[in-house]
Amino acid sequence: MASAIVRRNITHNLKKLPFLSSSLFNNKHLFNVEPSGSVSFHSETVAGGGGLPSYMRGAVYWEPNKPLTIEEFHIPRPKAGELLIKTKACGVCHSDLHVMKAEIPFATPCVVGHEITGEVIEHGQNTDSKTIERLPVGSRVVGAFIMPCGNCSYCSKGHDDLCEAFFAYNRAKGTLYDGETRLFLRSSGKPVFMYSMGGLAEYCVVPANALAVLPSSMPYTESAILGCAVFTAYGAMAHAAEVRPGDSVAVIGTGGVGSSCLQIARAFGASDIIAVDVQDNKLEKAKTLGATHTINSAKEDPIEKILEITGGKGVDVAVEALGLPLTFAQCTQSVKDGGKAVMIGLAKAGSLGEIDINRLVRRKIKVIGSYGGRARQDLPKLIRLAETGIFDLGHAVSRKYTFEESGKAFQDLNEGKIVGRAVIEIV
């Protein structure tokens, strides 16, 4: 079979391999140490794929507020229902930055990066035939940051965004759904945890349910943002806000995710689309992405201005994309009676938002959280929106970095130097 893995077991005496660190033999994915003192070494080649290198590079976050370092890893190996992807591009997202600043607890050390495009290199053993047929070796793919298991009570109802395994294992422990990471340092064999698929690396392992085919007409680099920035915006607009043609929408915070919300709102036929930010350059950019009105909240009261634009009523939908108590309050106060305040910005752990309880009750204000879209349902739709030009990827991506510039990319993001979304090219 074209996708079959050819395995060769070569037994060597340990004394004849002085160039190998003894710690490598602790990596069960590569070696078996026999009782006789010999080691069984597994060399693997993917038929039709030209073989795999023995190691790769990945960007590691070690501890809070320390720069990323590029380290060498053993090539990660997929298990059943998982695919090995040669990463082509990875988006630069505030969620990673929250982890790197210790604002959101996560296992360390870890490889960050969670919105990727790439090429299918290998299927895990015992992966079902339908997955292999849908995503054959050589396929161009985009990966969603929420990686649904497909089997839990939520996934079985189509609510991939609430997948129990994703939150219990990946977000809580930094592993995939057998409780193990796929990343091991080349120098020591020590495990490194995974934020989503650990996409800021030359190869990554992704559960098949999180992947969709990327048409050959679409570029790897710009398409990477489909897996988080656009995916998050779509989840907010389609599932939480349920935006309808003619609705008025305000987006507070027009970074990578917020600016994607503007495009999705326009695609859904919203009428007034109001962009709120503190940087004029971001607001100018917002006008090209669908905003009909802009408000600099550093210069004028955004609530008063939104009420003025909407004839004193407020908007049907307000979206908060920053994760700050102040903007949480602005979001809830900007919606009309019966309106929806949708929260998509992650905050520092323990942050609280306040709301006027009487208004909430009397005026039927809806406050809804939204973490992202539903990978199996939504990712193919997003690809189609971008492929047809309804969502403009070119305007959404404003900066590109090389893999070696990964640390600089997140430094620039932290300093507010990135308008829209940046992408790291991994080639």
Characterization of the model:
The chain has 427 residues and is α/β, with parallel strands linked by helices. The chain is built from 13 helices and 21 strands. Strands 6, 8, 9, 12, 13, 20 and 21 form a seven-stranded mixed beta sheet that branches. Strand 17, helix 9 and strand 18 form a beta-alpha-beta unit. Helix 5 packs across helix 6 and helix 5 packs across helix 11. The relative contact order is 0.14. Belongs to the zinc-containing alcohol dehydrogenase family. This is Enoyl reductase (ER) domain-containing protein. Its cofactor is Zn(2+). GO terms for molecular function: metal ion binding; oxidoreductase activity.
Can you count the helices? 13
**Roughly what fraction of the amino acids lie in strands?**
25-35%
Distance between the termini: 28 Å
Q: How many extended strands?
A: 21
Residue runs with pLDDT of under 50 for 5 or more positions = 1-50
Overall SS class:
alpha/beta
Q: What is the overall silhouette?
A: globular
Give the biggest beta sheet.
7 strands, mixed
Question: Helical residue percent?
Answer: 25-40%
Gyration radius from CA atoms, angstroms: 23 Å
Mean pLDDT: 89
Domain Enoyl reductase (ER): 63-424
Family: Belongs to the zinc-containing alcohol dehydrogenase family.
Cofactor: Zn(2+)
GO molecular function: metal ion binding; oxidoreductase activity
